[in-house]
Write a structure and sequence with these properties.
The complex is a heterodimer of chains A (106) and B (415). Chain A is α+β, with helices and mostly antiparallel strands. Helices cover 13% and strands 20% of the residues of chain A. Chain B is built from 17 helices and 16 strands. Classes of the chains: A alpha+beta (106), B alpha+beta (415).
Chain lengths: 106, 415
């Protein structure tokens, strides 16, 4: 079962068991992880599930597509090289994912 | 419509008929829990447009709202009347919320950037400053006062003017016109029509000006879309602006009022809020969005709903077949209180963290102005209760029951 490690801006960490095929966003929303809203349900139209993906975990995912790239310009917290929309990070067996929740997620 | 009696664990039978007439808010929540435990949705006959499935379960609502097989095209084209409590005005049926992909995606993208979390974040400081200014004015005039025009409506209208790009000098008349779009002041129809016509004329001239001399605002963004295939006609821009005005301040003003009332009626929760205003404001706002309307009235009825969709093929949701051509909508009050999503849904809890409410909808039609509404509510409540922690009600709030959104028009308070 893949695990997701959510680190809050204050450094506190919460580990949640995910399921292959679910996204990092839906796993967060279902478990009430603070700071990940995901209001459009993953249809790339709200920019409220922004996270910073750990550098070591980038190897497990393709880079952002064109629509995600555009939405990453709209996030509340500053965009960084590791910025992703967590609705686009799909979990798979045997891969744990580490993300940091940004300061402000309006 | 079902009328099965559902037995809860309290051994007291609960009436699971839907829709249901006015009952106490606690009884309404008991019924929502029992109805959702009994079935995922109910077929209901609307005063206009015939039958519609009304979804009661949170997970079923998410499934429907995330499924592209549910569309709004037949409503937009006029092929079908929208099954609802009132007739939808034509101008609303021509807006973004009745579009489906791919046109919806194209239009939404154009507006998205102007109202994105990033842009809203940049507006927060000015919202805080304006909230303080409004309170300064209120305090100078002295208590008691009606919080609705002095604060709850004034703040979102100011923010909307900033967002759209209305020059400061024009704001008083813009405020008058935009307030009239929902007849907040209960004005006669001729006067309402005149106000809306003036507003449309004003916006058309402003669109023209922003096309020639763009600034950093929504009208400039829309009038100067970067790609040729994205460019919009003045009429299309006007429709978007009018939709934002219609949706953009009245709902937020109502939720600010609902927040004030919820906190005043739950002093234990107000104390929690005041202990750490900035820390608690985000979750408090979500809880007000979920449960606030239950704190506004002595009675609650079961039968509300968001704008419906039509199934383009047979789809099974949570064990219920929704046939091709069926209309379907979500009752937000029901999905915001049902037992699986909210084991203690009758409680107003400003620190509630797992709060999957659907007041602002979900999926690609979720509220475009959600980041702005959230920010305004957080700012409005934080500044109000920080500045005036002794705020008290000076009488019963008055609602305009003749208006579609049943806004609070009088919220008498002192400090």
């Amino acid at each position: 079962m893949p695990k997701v490690f959510y680190v809050q801006p204050d450094g506190s960490e919460r580990v949640v068991d995910g399921a292959a095929g679910d996204s990092v966003m839906s796993t967060a929303v279902r478990n009430g992880v603070r700071g990940i809203v995901g209001q459009c349900g993953g249809s790339l139209s709200c920019a409220t599930c922004h996270v910073y993906l750990a550098a070591d975990d980038r190897q497990y995912f393709d880079g952002p597509g064109e629509d995600e790239d555009e939405m990453l310009d709209c996030t509340a917290s500053d965009r960084e090289d590791t910025s992703r929309l967590s609705c686009q990070l799909v979990l798979r067996e045997g891969v744990d994912v580490h993300v940091t929740v940004p300061d402000e997620q309006t | 419509m079902s009328s099965t009696n559902f037995q809860t664990t309290t051994t007291e039978p609960v009436d699971t008929s839907y829709p249901f007439g006015p009952v106490t808010p606690n009884e309404a929540v008991r019924r929502y829990v029992a109805i959702a435990a009994d079935r995922p949705m109910t077929k209901m006959t609307m005063p206009i447009g015939g039958d519609v499935w009304v979804i009661h379960r949170n997970a079923a609502a998410r499934q429907m709202l995330g499924d592209p097989r549910f569309v709004r095209e037949p409503f937009r084209t006029g092929k079908r009347a929208v099954p609802y409590f009132v007739e939808f005005p034509d101008f609303l049926k021509g807006t973004l919320q009745f579009e489906d992909p791919p046109h919806h995606t194209q239009l939404r993208k154009l507006v998205q950037k102007s109202i994105s979390p990033k842009r809203v974040r940049a507006m927060r400081e000015s919202a805080v400053a304006y909230a303080h200014q409004l309170i300064d004015d209120m305090v100078a005039k002295g208590s008691p006062t009606n919080l609705v025009p002095e604060y709850a409506v004034a703040l979102p209208i100011q923010m909307l003017a900033n967002l759209i790009g209305v020059p400061p000098a024009d704001r008083p008349k813009f405020q008058k016109w935009s307030a009239a779009t929902l007849a907040v002041a209960n004005m006669p129809e001729e006067e309402l029509l005149q106000n809306m016509t003036e507003l449309a004329g004003y916006l058309t001239a402003l669109i023209d000006e922003r096309r020639k001399q763009p600034r950093e605002d929504l009208l400039s963004d829309l009038a100067n879309a970067p790609h040729k295939d994205e460019s919009l006609s003045d009429g299309e821009i006007l429709t978007i602006a009018m939709l934002l005005i219609t949706a953009g301040f009245d709902n937020t003003a109502n939720f600010i009022c609902a927040g004030v009332l919820s906190l005043l009626k739950n002093p234990d929760q107000l104390a929690v809020f005041l202990e750490d205003v900035d820390g608690v404001a985000p979750t408090a706002v979500e809880e007000i969005l979920r449960h606030g309307r239950m704190c506004m009235y002595d009675k609650a009825s079961g039968g509300g709903g968001l704008v419906p969709f039509v199934a383009t093929e047979d789809v099974e949701i949570d064990g219920q077949l929704v046939a091709r051509g069926d209309a379907i909508l979500v009752d937000p009050a029901s999905v915001n209180h049902e037992g699986r999503a909210y084991p203690d849904g009758d409680r107003f809890d400003v620190r509630r963290s797992d709060n999957p409410h659907m007041t602002l909808s979900y999926g690609l039609h979720h509220c475009l102005g959600a980041p702005l509404a959230r920010m305004e509510m957080q700012v409005a409540l934080s500044v109000l209760f920080t500045r005036l922690p002794g705020l008290t009600l000076e009488g019963d709030p008055v609602m305009d029951m003749n208006n579609l959104t049943t806004p609070i028009v009088d919220l008498p308070v002192s400090w």
